Amino acid sequence: MVLNAYARPTTDRVVIPLGRGLVRLGATPNALTMFGLLATFVGAGIVVADYHLAGALVLAFATATDALEPEFSVPDREGWETNQEIAALYEGTGGDTAPLLPVVTLPEGESVDSPAVRADLERIEATESVYR
Hints:
Elements: H1 2-24, H2 29-48, H3 52-64, H4 69-72, H5 78-89, H6 115-128
Helix pairs in contact: 2-3
């Protein structure tokens, strides 16, 4: 989503602190999803009752809760910090698509400095440039 690339820095200033606060309160991603669903039903009911502006505001709020889901349970946690480093290292992650990060398991007794392993890793690294 192109808009996400432009809006993300602005929305992160609100979403990340809010997400951290929700984590401290013990909220879970599932609870947030259920809250958004219920708020959507309430907003739709308000629109059906001919209170269009109020209903639209409730629906906008309910939709905005989805913005919390990707971030809210992970700021300052290992996975979130790792994703931030990956995004910085590879100049982004492709928008809403999670980055592809290969994991290599070495044969027992081998290290990344072993000639055969080094050759294999160099071959993988050479093909990585195809995806840029």
